[in-house]
Amino acid sequence: MSAPAAAVNPIRNVARWSALAAGLVYGYVHHNTLTALEHNRAEQKKIEHRDHLIAQAKAEWIKMNTPTGGVVTDPESPNFDLEKVLIHLSETA
């Protein structure tokens, strides 16, 4: 005759199911966190690429719109000199 099956302690059973539920919740939250981080990195990369293209376009525009005399007419440029612009305008007028 075989030995009777030992009864599983109900506290141990509750602990097992609780651990399983906690693991599932942790996995779900961790997955969502990693997905959000990856989405943020991709979005940041798009923004940096767009900013790079804008800076490149501004530099090209300045290069194309700078008169041949080398006078910078953009007042926001760090190389802007009002005196040179006024002299250049008085010479060309």
UniProtKB/TrEMBL annotation:
GO terms for biological process: proton motive force-driven ATP synthesis. The keyword Transferase does not apply. One of its GO terms (molecular function) is proton transmembrane transporter activity. Keywords: ATP synthesis, CF(0), Hydrogen ion transport, Ion transport, Membrane, Mitochondrion, Mitochondrion inner membrane, Transport. GO terms for cellular component: mitochondrial inner membrane; proton-transporting ATP synthase complex. Pfam families: ATP-synt_E (PF05680). It is found in: Mitochondrion inner membrane. It comes from the Eukaryota. F-type ATPases have 2 components, CF(1) - the catalytic core - and CF(0) - the membrane proton channel. CF(1) and CF(0) have multiple subunits. Subunit e, of the mitochondrial membrane ATP synthase complex (F(1)F(0) ATP synthase or Complex V) that produces ATP from ADP in the presence of a proton gradient across the membrane which is generated by electron transport complexes of the respiratory chain. ATP synthase complex consist of a soluble F(1) head domain - the catalytic core - and a membrane F(1) domain - the membrane proton channel. These two domains are linked by a central stalk rotating inside the F(1) region and a stationary peripheral stalk. Belongs to the ATPase e subunit family. This is ATP synthase F(0) complex subunit e, mitochondrial. It comes from Linnemannia schmuckeri. The lineage of its organism: Eukaryota, Fungi, Fungi incertae sedis, Mucoromycota, Mortierellomycotina.
